[in-house]
């Protein structure tokens, strides 16, 4: 119901913009180029919500007077994206999800993934943190 409400509000229900097959190119357009990746990364960064910054812990500051090390704990920090089309991963099991896209009919196979550990490691290195 929520999806249909948005479609009505955006006037997509009666849109004749694309009726296959004449517009098949539009439907199968590649949207994984560098500009799309940059946009997705920016949207993800902007959507993060800090619920509570107790005692002003964030932002983490490295260097001589700041934080020296960070511990990253748990298998989710190094989790690989799940691809139901891939070999050896339960091929065809679209109901199974991952940490990045969930599961079920809405599962999207991630083309580019930076694991939490890799992302934190890169930023920590720039800040002089181990």
UniProtKB/TrEMBL annotation:
What's the top EC group for this one? hydrolase
Q: What is its EC number?
A: 3.2.1.21
| Domain Glycoside hydrolase family 3 C-terminal per the UniProt entry, residue ranges | 48-124
- GO molecular function terms listed in the Swiss-Prot or TrEMBL record: beta-glucosidase activity
Q: Show the catalytic activity.
A: Hydrolysis of terminal, non-reducing beta-D-glucosyl residues with release of beta-D-glucose
Q: Name one Pfam family in it.
A: Glyco_hydro_3_C
Specify the domain of life of the species encoding this protein: Eukaryota
**What Gene Ontology biological process does one annotation of this record name?**
glucan catabolic process
Q: Which UniProt keywords apply?
A: Glycosidase, Hydrolase
Question: What family does the database annotate?
Answer: Belongs to the glycosyl hydrolase 3 family.
**UniProt protein name:** beta-glucosidase
> What is the species listed in this Swiss-Prot or TrEMBL entry?
Alexandrium catenella
């Amino acid at each position: 119901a929520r999806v249909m409400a948005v479609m009505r509000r955006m006037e997509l229900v009666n849109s004749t913009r694309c009726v296959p097959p004449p517009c098949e190119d539009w439907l199968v357009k590649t949207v994984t180029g560098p500009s799309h990746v940059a946009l997705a990364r920016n949207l993800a960064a902007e959507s993060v919500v800090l619920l509570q910054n107790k005692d002003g812990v964030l932002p983490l500051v490295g260097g001589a007077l700041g934080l020296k090390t960070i511990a990253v704990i748990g298998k989710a920090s190094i989790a690989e994206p799940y691809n139901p089309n891939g070999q050896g991963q339960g091929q065809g099991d679209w109901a199974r999800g991952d940490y990045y896209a969930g599961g079920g009919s809405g599962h999207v196979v991630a083309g580019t993934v930076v694991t939490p550990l890799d992302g934190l490691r890169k930023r920590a290195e720039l800040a002089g943190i181990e």
